[in-house]
Design the sequence.
């Protein structure tokens, strides 16, 4: 048996796959919150470069990856597909488990795939500086690296709870030359208003997005970059699934189940969407998106138009949401603490193409530890959600011969403080935060 | 240009290369400190399994890698050889720079190569538990992982200064199921005696070795494992250079210079020794071992018999040494804070096969940051020494077409606190600690 299935650089995909045209019944357009009418590229161009806006709304199924982006992808791509035979053995299962390992990127996760593309298109548009937010720190690290590669400045608003728990993330971003501030921050009017109400606010992705959007909108030389949710981000991440498909072919295999963790949806959609056409053509393949029980957007949220941020500054997106002012408990998988979900993933859940699943964090860390002890790699807390679901599927019927592909979206080497708390027994499972969700749901914007 | 030169699992070497028979004028045997006579395997078998002792003294040039070890190597090996074209570009040099990336192993460094082999032979000998020391934490992490793989318990004595600076290392070792204590520790008589004299002792590898050896010698079920210095460790690390040679052949290249950092000597010897026969056959190839100016074993030490540890419990090794009770300044490259040097590397320096070089830490961190910004990977502080030397060689004459191969022995993701201190400007360069070295040199054991 071959443990690692590798592709050469010349086998790396030269095009991204745009799933949008293939989604049955399509996507609802983003709306201008002022008029409730579909928002055009002109208005969005204040904070996004036209190259990305074209991708955001493209009807094309395949989009060329620019040479300059491929050149940087080659630093770590193609990423390996690895057979988790030692995990299989520990579980005593007949299920074959493969994982696509995106932790090999410089910043340690799949986020770098989109960061490099976004930095490239911003540079091409003459932008000098990018502002962004980061939850767990994976996206901020990725964008810091990518921005430096294209000679752009980078300012990162990092969710306070992660900022405090993960000091090494800041050092990594500093290494790549970026400026970092804990969010809510004193650097923006919205950050200051949150701090006035609650100086100890743990922050949230929704708050940090508001700050970064404000920063970008208020400076001519600065654009905004988002690490998940939007169509162009999912587009860039499709390289994960495109590579995995080629690699499984090489291994003479095909997945019965594809699993990824879901925060904004980008790593899951990245690995899953390139298999959509096969599924629509009748292939019997399950796509499982895994979210935390404490922030259960897909399993307990509502499909509706909502803001992407707390300050209500973004366009309205049609997505599963818990309400833009839902404040999730401070669980350690900071990358999954988001009230909304990518419109692409949302539409695929609506169409029953994707099965959502929610899991509790302690079981996730248990899964992560088992994975580290068997396969060697210590996974990020976010990724542990995918591993937990993989283990559940692989052990439902130990004798069922089936194949699971999951996305090991990032390593957990900069998240070891959360493992430490897990070993110390100081982590809790948060039950479905019903009251907070109901309150936030009541604040959804009225549309149409 | 191909960025990454990969080998398939079937191209992975099936034998380790034992350099000992090829070293001109050979090695001096280790001595029993009681009798000053060569020490036999019988006496060493109290703390080492016979499988490793046979390797330690083997006259064979090639030794088969057991299937069980290859099986675990396949988790991350063969490791990639990567062309540092983006670093070359930043330097404006015509030198071609390749690096062998050993940071892909589960514990993040080359140490895993020997850890897996050592755990295997101990398991085979019926041992239940291994005691060891660790400086920076790389070796302790590697052995924790390897021991768990073979169902062995593992106790790690971690040099206090690293223990405090690198809390994530402890969490990693815990993840792999090991028990960790800061050294000097209250767990051994020698540790207690050091603590009595100096409760704030920062520790040293020499002290931690004494503790681990005592632990192993005092328990029937426990053996000792050393992560560098000894011949069998260098043997296991030869897989690095053997792979690199194959990979350079694939790239149609051959190194003019091979560079590695030197603490105990294992990563440097691992990449360099497989090229020794070519050098002896007349190939014009320079082998450069790089050590910290604050612990200048090869450049300022003496070639003599000395103890491997502070408590004078190990056999006497014929090696470059600063004296077994030399206490190096607490620089951040904990893996390079060792008074001695592998007898193999020492003999090759004696024969003028290896050129030793010493560098200061601040310049090393500068080199590490430039490497991260260009090549993406944040290197371990130890590895930064090799990168610093590589940059010096590549920029001596920018127009000289030459090829450098260096060993990127480990990533620095668990060492980011030292980068943080570097950015904050709170690191110092330690000059040659002449007085401390002179004092320690006066205490060398009298032999012959």
Sequence:
């Amino acid at each position: 048996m071959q443990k690692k299935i590798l592709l050469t650089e010349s086998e790396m995909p030269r095009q991204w796959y745009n799933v949008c045209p293939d989604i049955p019944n399509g996507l609802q357009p983003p709306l201008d919150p002022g008029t409730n009418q579909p928002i055009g590229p002109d208005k969005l161009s204040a904070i996004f470069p036209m190259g990305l806006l074209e991708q955001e709304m493209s009807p094309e199924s395949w989009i060329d990856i620019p040479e300059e982006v491929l050149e940087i992808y080659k630093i770590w791509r193609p990423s390996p597909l690895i057979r988790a035979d030692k995990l299989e053995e520990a579980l005593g299962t007949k299920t074959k488990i493969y994982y696509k390992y995106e932790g090999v990127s410089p910043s340690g996760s799949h986020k770098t795939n989109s960061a490099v593309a976004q930095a490239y298109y911003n540079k091409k548009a003459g932008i000098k500086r990018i502002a962004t937010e980061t939850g767990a720190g994976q996206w901020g690290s990725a964008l810091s690296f990518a921005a430096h590669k294209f000679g752009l400045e980078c300012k990162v608003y990092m969710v306070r709870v992660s900022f405090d728990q993960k000091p090494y993330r800041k050092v990594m971003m500093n290494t790549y030359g970026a400026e970092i501030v804990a969010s809510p921050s004193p650097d923006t009017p919205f950050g200051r208003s949150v701090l006035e109400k609650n100086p100890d606010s743990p922050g949230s992705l929704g708050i940090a997005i508001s700050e970064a959007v404000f920063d970008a909108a208020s400076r001519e030389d600065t654009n905004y970059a988002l690490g998940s949710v939007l169509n162009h981000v999912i587009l860039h991440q499709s390289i994960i699934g495109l590579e995995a498909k080629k690699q499984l072919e090489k291994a003479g295999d095909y997945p019965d189940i594809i699993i990824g963790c879901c925060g904004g949806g980008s790593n899951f959609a990245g690995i899953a969407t390139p298999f959509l056409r096969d599924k629509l053509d009748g292939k019997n393949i399950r796509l499982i998106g895994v979210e935390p029980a404490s922030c259960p957007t897909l399993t307990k949220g509502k499909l509706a138009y909502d803001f992407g941020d707390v300050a209500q500054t973004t366009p309205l997106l049609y997505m599963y949401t818990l309400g833009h002012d839902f404040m999730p408990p401070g669980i350690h998988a900071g990358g999954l603490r988001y009230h909304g979900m990518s419109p692409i993933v949302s539409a695929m859940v609506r169409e029953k193409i994707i099965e959502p699943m929610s899991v509790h964090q302690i079981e996730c860390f248990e899964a992560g530890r088992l994975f580290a002890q068997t396969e060697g790699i210590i996974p990020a807390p976010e990724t542990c959600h995918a591993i937990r679901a993989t283990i559940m599927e692989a052990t439902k019927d130990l004798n069922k011969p089936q194949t699971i592909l999951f996305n090991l979206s990032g390593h957990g080497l900069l998240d070891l403080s959360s493992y430490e708390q897990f070993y110390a027994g100081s982590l809790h499972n948060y039950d479905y935060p019903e009251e907070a969700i109901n309150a936030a749901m009541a604040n959804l914007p009225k549309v149409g």
